[in-house]
Specification:
- 2 copies of one chain form a homodimer.
- Chain A is mainly alpha-helical and about 500 residues long.
- Chain A has a 3-stranded mixed beta sheet, with helices on both faces.
- In chain A, strand 2 and strand 3 form a beta hairpin.
- The longest helix of chain A is centred in the first third of the chain and has 31 residues.
- The first copy, chain A, is globular.
- The interface between A and B is large, with 40 and 40 residues.
């Protein structure tokens, strides 16, 4: 009896994977090469496929299978049990949404994303506003269907990061603000970074990207690199992972750190255990754990002096004219230049969490406070002035800069800062266990990837994120690792003592 | 009552379109950028989606809706009636195939295509053979399920080209052979084409492609151009059409004519009437009509002297060093160099139909004669010697050169030659109605596209292909237009009289 159910459940999971694959590919295509005029058609296709997924997800047959598997948990492959557990939670979240609203939201989100691209180009927030309002209204409704009595934003945070709540984040961002704002304030003299802005032809930058992917150990047979305005990573299974970057001829470090960042996401996915690769557990467990990996490789490793020392000879080989009068140390100092700036994705490691904090505060007020979407630009600009001391010249470089809200990703931003903080605690644990920096200095990231695979990657979504990270840290999460790390690094870099 | 059915049928068609869109995109991705290691996963996803399509297509509900619409044909939108008619035919073709065989075939075909890419690279026919045999066996079974008593190959031809049979094609290829082989034999002295093989950087060739797409009037908002080993066109609706090309730095004409050829396909799709665009009728009606358009633009227009005269100044602007000592007439003569060669897609206009004839003869024997797949290379090489007088050095440039068989497209090739022949009869009709060549000489293809839209494109798949083309010709199809056109063109080019 249970064997029969297991067999049917596996077939169901295979089907679900296929639909997600198709929708994922469509989304990837939309964000890479799809001709713009095809937008409405893609929206309709998304509507049809998401309806099919909704039906599969919420059908009584699915519910019955999952209930039976959970009732016989001792007789069933633990991977299926965990899958059924998670799916039961997720079904509860989805099944409370009326189907027509669910499907309409998918379509609206596709449209909002397309409008945002254009609105950003034109720096036209009012153009984007009605679409944003529609998404916010839907997200509020969905959260209330699921947990009628809970604060809306908390419900949304929990969706990306189980157990995460505003209390935790308020504390976290307070620590960040209290400890880092004084460090930022002390910085006065800036290093010369002019050599980063010499002419770096895109053809050579592509060669450099290939080299970086090799350094990260990314197998091109399963991981491709493309080019988009906004770099991102997507995966349909660990066997098909795709990262993108964006080249600027006068900013060699922009694509360099996009490749390392997205490559960090890809490294996580590529090292999930084969046994779970094709199941719903075969993906990174949460946004913060995922961003933790990408920002770990980008900053803790990629912006470390040993790493720059390791790759600099190759860089000089690829860009001989541009870097002939530059040392590895000059380059290390330059890519760590810390200064309040407008764009989150281009922010330095030190000021970065303040960008995230601003988004967090705005989202909190948007969903559980009295902030209206139409007032976002004004509030955005006010907070950038208050916390980063800078004036936002236009919405393109302000409230319209990120794609997240256009994709309905509210409550996602905090994971960037949390993830950054994870890395600082992880590296301390690694340093106690093996000689991290000798490997990095030799350009060999294999021991690091092996350690992360052992403690994090291979588990995919088997464990809860909190448990996974506590086991990896060997202790509860402590954000002071992060603030200490940043304080020490930038105190030394800027001779602040 | 019927209104209710119509409404449900429209919803069904929307759903079907969405699945075809998803599968089409997946196929496009597989042929463009998908990392190779993702192959097996894509096969599984195809399996799931094709099963869903099979179920939709063959369900009793679908059959009932279609029967009811046909029973009330006078009360229903004629577009829906025609859709139901065609779907009824197609359902008959599919529903006779057991579902597991149908799904397995989709998976096998995906695999065969992937193996073929590698086998071609390695010139390894035995590697490809078992996959080819599997597809052939399945296609034979499918044809027999559908028409147990008919010759298999005839059933397959009819799938791509309704009403087409081996008698028609035998007659057609006999005309081609009898009339063209003597012309080919007369050619002795060849023009100087060395300037085609100078160094043409890919960056400049890309600019040239953009220009050619403008000349064809292709709106980039709905039609993109990509790069693949084998150029092709795909479309998800007329609003999302994608062509690809392949650049060779030492063959400027290779990509040039790929762009014009694929651009011809795209022009057809882009000019289908908006009213049927999102229905199953919103696509080119048959393979030969489609290839007729691509080869019309490639050869009848693209390899005409007036067209070369029109675009040559722009070419000299893009490639000043390469073409400074070349005249438009030199270029015209060079791109029409006729000479037996190995590769169909690179063959000149005159010898081209013999390449197709060889494939036709082999397919006929493979499905209704005693030729076995394992003997294909030997027979292929023998026929290339017999009809084109050349030795095939390896299977990469022989039997493995085309992707069609690896995609299960047997019975498809004849449409290339038929399509080429259509163009010669069409241009005669156009010449009687307006001054085609003055427009072409002015670089203005709009009147031609308008004429073709009026007579062919806008109808999509509303009319049967034979009826459509007869109405466009204003007469029954007559292949001697084609042989006369080629004889006249090459007699003049090579001074054969």
């Amino acid at each position: 009896m249970i064997e029969e159910t297991v067999k049917r459940y596996r077939a169901y999971l295979g089907k679900l994977r296929a639909y997600r694959h198709a929708m994922g590919l469509m989304n990837y295509d939309m964000n890479t090469i799809m001709p713009k005029g095809a937008g409405p058609i893609v929206g309709e296709t998304f509507g049809v496929l998401s309806e099919a997924v909704y039906d599969m997800y919420t059908s009584p047959e699915t519910e019955a299978m999952q209930r039976e598997i959970l009732a016989h948990r001792d007789e069933v492959d633990p991977i299926l049990v965990r899958t059924a557990e998670l799916a039961t939670e997720e079904r509860a979240r989805i099944a409370c949404i009326p189907k027509d609203e669910y499907v309409q939201y998918t379509i609206d989100q596709t449209t909002a994303d397309q409008v945002w691209h254009e609105a950003k180009l034109k720096s036209d927030f009012p153009m984007f506003l009605p679409h944003l309002e529609k998404l916010i209204a839907a997200k509020k409704r969905f959260a209330r269907y699921y947990r009628p009595d809970a604060p809306v934003y908390g419900t949304m945070l929990d969706e990306y990061e189980k157990g995460l709540c505003t209390e935790t984040l308020d504390r976290f961002f307070k620590t960040v603000r209290d400890r880092l704002v004084p460090v930022i304030a002390k910085i006065k003299e800036q290093p010369d970074v002019s050599f980063l802005h010499r002419y770096y032809p895109i053809a050579e930058q592509r060669i450099f990207s290939d080299y970086l992917m090799d350094v990260l150990g990314l197998d091109r047979n399963h991981c491709i690199i493309g080019e988009t305005e906004h770099p991102f990573t997507t995966e349909f299974t660990k066997y098909d992972v795709r990262i993108t970057t964006h080249y600027h001829e006068d900013m060699v470090e922009a694509s360099m750190y996009s490749v390392i960042h997205e490559g960090g996401h890809a490294t996580y996915e590529r090292n999930i255990a084969d046994e779970i690769a094709k199941t719903p557990l075969g993906r990174g467990v949460s946004m913060s754990v995922h961003e933790g990996q990408s920002r770990f490789f980008e900053n803790i490793i990629g912006r470390s002096e040993p790493f720059i020392e390791a790759i600099f000879p190759k860089m000089q080989e690829i860009f001989p004219a541009q870097l002939k009068d530059v040392t590895a140390h000059d380059f290390y100092v330059a890519v760590n230049k810390a200064e309040p700036s407008l764009i989150r994705t281009e922010a330095d490691e030190l000021t970065y969490p303040l960008h995230v904090m601003i988004r967090y505060e705005l989202e909190k007020r948007l969903f559980d406070g009295d902030l209206e979407a139409k007032d976002l630009p004004k509030e955005w600009n006010r907070m950038y002035k208050e916390y980063l001391g800078i004036d936002v010249p236009d919405d393109r470089r302000g409230v319209l800069q990120d794609s997240h809200w256009a994709s309905g990703l509210f409550g996602y931003f905090p994971s960037y800062a949390l993830g950054s903080a994870f890395g600082a605690q992880l590296i301390k644990r690694m340093e106690r266990e093996f000689d991290v920096w000798s490997s990095v200095r030799a350009g060999d990231l294999k021991p690091i990837v092996a350690w992360l695979t052992e403690h994090i990657y291979r588990f995919g979504s088997i464990k809860e994120p909190t448990q996974l990270m506590e086991e990896a840290f060997g202790a509860p999460f402590d954000p002071t690792y992060y603030t200490d790390y940043l304080t020490a690094k930038f105190t030394k870099l800027y001779h602040l003592n």
